[in-house]
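Please produce the structure of this protein holding AR6.
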Amino acid sequence: MSERKVHDVIIECVQGDIADQPDMDGIINAANAELRTGGGVAGAIHRAAGPGLEEECRPLAPIRPGQAVITGAHNLPNRFVIHCLGPVYGKDHPSDSLLASCYREALGLAETHGLDSVASPAISTGVFGYPMEEAAQVAFRTITEEAPGLSAVRRIRFVLFSEKDRRLHARVLNELTGQDEA
Ligand code: AR6
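Below is the modeled complex.
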């Protein structure tokens, strides 16, 4: 695990499953526009949450690329799920500002709902095809920009599915914050 402090916010990169982060107040879903279950992250989250999550999501859908909405977490061990629709790489333009908007809106919702800790997957880097390193740069740049304005959120955990992706994220985070490799 590697972690960095940006203003008063700890950013950490771990390898694991986003649906198995019981010590986090909220988790972020790499959602589809309809806020239904799906493959990857959305499948894992909806399976663990149970059918009540899709029911709560129904009136909130559809959402547009770059948008985030918040719901309860149902059978998940967290308090909230923040659903973000990332851009489809090469189709939703401009991809970088839409991806940045996901993280900005997600952090805004976390703040207004008083979440102390939020776990996020690497939005758009699976089915939606966003190159992992570029996506990590957008994610950490956005979080670094938002950090000074956060007063509730104290810990942001990036949960990467593979050790290779975790290492890449840790490296990009270190490059951006100008600190040595952990
Ligand atoms: N925990 C953490 N990371 C995961 C997990 C998991 N359980 N499963 C996959 N990843 P994706 P997207 C990684 O495809 O690109 C869905 O079907 C994965 O390796 O879940 O935003 C929705 O219904 C990748 O790096 O999200 C949408 O239609 C990253 O999480 C669409 O796919 C995101 O992969 C969203 O595509």
